[in-house]
Amino acid sequence: MANALRPAFVLVVLLTLLTGLVAPLAMTGLAGLAFPFEARGSLIEDHGRIIGSALIGQNFTGAGYFHPRPSATTEPDPKDASKTVPVPYAADNSNASNLAPTAKALIDRVKGDLASAGPAPVPADAVTTSASGLDPDISPENARRQIARVASARHWPEDRVAALVAAYTEAPFLGLIGEARVNVLALNRALDRMRAP
Amino acid sequence: MTISGWAEILLVLALIVFAAWPVGIHIARIAAGERSFLHPVLAPIERGFYALAGVDPRRGMDWRGYAVALILLNALHFLMLYAMLRLQFYLPLNPDHLAGMSPRLAFNTAMSFVTNTNWQAYGGETTLSPGSQMWGLTSHMFVSAATGIAAALAIARAFAAGGMKTLGNFWADLTRIVLYLLLPIAILAGIALVALGVPQTLATHADATTLEGMKQTIAMGPVAFMEAIKELGTNGGGYFNANSAHPFENPNAWSSILETVLVFLIPIALTFTFGRIVKDARQGYALLAVIGVFVLAAIAVAYHAEAAGNPLLTALGVDPAQGNMEGKELRFGIPLSVLFNVITTATSCGAVNAMLDSYMPLGGMTSMFLIQLGEIVPGGVGSGLYGLLIFALIAVFVAGLMVGRTPEYLGKKIQAKEVKLAMLAVLILPLAILGFTALSLVMPAATASLGNAGPHGLSEMLYAFTSATGNNGSAFAGLSADTAWLDTTLGIAMLLGRFAFLIPVLAIAGALAEKVKVPPSSGTFPTHGPLFVGLLCGVIVIMGGLQFMPALSLGPLAEQFTLLAGKTF
């Protein structure tokens, strides 16, 4: 036992230094050089101001924007730190609803969201929260159902918005890998950059 | 379920077996101390480690020596992590000045990472500094994984030859696995993940102003390297609270596939390694076949359950075409979500890219059942292989009882001592899982933690102790786990699941190593054919699975029936 003490102690220290300090720091340096955009969080800047990350969803409520999926993220209540308040797309506190498929709270929440979701059948992603609460994408069907609202709020013809949705729809690779999706931030940013007709 | 969904799943599984084969051969060479293509670069580091530690890598250890070395190193590592978590406030690389963890949470977290469980009763981005994530957690991901693989090598060697006094040198096994296996793959995978969009930076966050003019604080950090070893070492502890569902841990379908491959890579590779070490590749293929049966069955059940959607929501007017999307990310859809979660619960990884608490009852039960089988199909890195071998010993014992002959496995006679030790090991699981769950369900202090009511509440508690004892680390995360009772009891369950299982395994390895190797005769039961594969599957279901049937009936099965009756809680 005693003669195992030195190797145990020395190896714990050496392996911690190697795998917990040298390797991650070297990786950080290397990643920053080889992939500076990705390594720093895929941040998008407009006129020198960070407007978000290409990978992280953000909340949109205005009628002139496409809306993301519902989000279950929260932040501490400013009035009482022991409680939390719903803050959708809080990207410093990823979280899911963790509601069971049989939870009354889930059924009631979906019922409430369905009221403003248009005619049935409603695409599931429009009324369900994601696992991270930061899902950047919606389904093409979900986006198509929002075209009329966005076009009318911007006083644009619908086919102009529809063309933009089609352009920002990513198909699965070879029809096999991944899902069809529309990045909400990229689409809304394209809307803002487009001049009114 | 769709054809393209199945094609996507089967493609990934084929890719895993394809990638695991050369890795398995590489591990066998490392285990034998042979030179590999990495030696010109890394051998000086290896020699330096031995010189500083005063280790002679050629000196073999008997099973007691091996066990003492293994436990001592892990105990010291546990104490170091506990201290780091408590003292986080005073340590460097903590730009947000995060406070240290409470004693009970630090105990739970340190136990979680030393046992390769990576149960997380805290939210990563809100609780831990980049420093703690790096030298605290990431280093544990390497060492706990290497510990499991070392123990698996020790028991594999016990079958290799007859009349051996030693099982190998733990210090050398550990050092070589980290240097020649885990570190190179983690670095390559880490770079690939950065290229796919996973951040690797010392900044803790970026402040953005959204298009609608709101403030958004975007948490980040040195994620990619931790992500790589988290999957490769079947650890599972995420940088962020949402784990591999977070877009920064898993930005797209490609990263999800890469992470899935990494999780299965070493557990599958070790079946090839085992065949190599015992000098009969077919023995490894038989184990791989058993793993394949369970994994494919689990994917079929979970995929079917999730793809059909939630009938309660369909009745309200939700289109079931996308499947059950509550707690799932759109970019993965149902196939990649189900595949990921089956793979990480079939191994002891426990990373998730979708939230199991919101899975359909039978989808969530699949993951729970895979852990309850004993984390052996294929289980964690190393721990899965030695667990599966324990069940193989019980299977040949059962076969021996049927025909009235002394059972043998790979030419080693399996006698009363080995069978008793094997039973001692496998009985830890039901004892810790069912015992602690039953106790917690009658304690108001524990049931207050439940996030859901009805049978699903029982599932949450059962899942927590299943996950902790199986050293998995995934959760039905609606459970508020950071309480005095759960931090403590889950910590103890993790300790029992890892080390109370491992010590009998090493004792069996020691006993078997000494025995002579009997050449096969006409009366030998072949352990590489379909008959043995079927027998082993049966023993795993009966021994590992059936004892949990009553508990599963009260949880997920009851929930399924109430769901069909349209009842909510």
Structure description:
The complex is a heterodimer of chains A (197) and B (569). With 197 residues, chain A is of the alpha+beta class. Chain A folds into two domains: 10-40; 44-193, no CATH class. Helices cover 41% and strands 12% of the residues of chain A. Chain A has helices at 2-34, 36-39, 104-114, 140-144, 147-154, 158-167, 184-193, and strands at 43-46, 49-53, 74-76, 84-86, 122-123, 137-138, 169-170, 181-183. In chain A, a hairpin with a 2-residue loop joins strand 1 (43-46) and strand 2. Chain A is extended and about 80 Å long. By secondary structure, chain B is mostly helical. Chain B has a domain at 371-564. Chain B contains 20 helices and five strands. Chain B has helices at residues 3-31, 39-53, 63-86, 103-114, 124-127, 130-158, 170-196, 223-232, 253-277, 281-307, 311-314, 333-346, 361-372, 383-403, 416-441, 444-447, 455-469, 484-514, 530-545, 549-564; strands at 205-209, 215-219, 318-319, 408-409, 412-413. A two-stranded antiparallel sheet of chain B has the order 1-2. In chain B, strand 4 and strand 5 form a beta hairpin. The interface between A and B is large, with 103 and 128 residues. Strand 5 of chain A pairs parallel with strand 3 (318-319) of chain B, so a sheet runs across the interface.
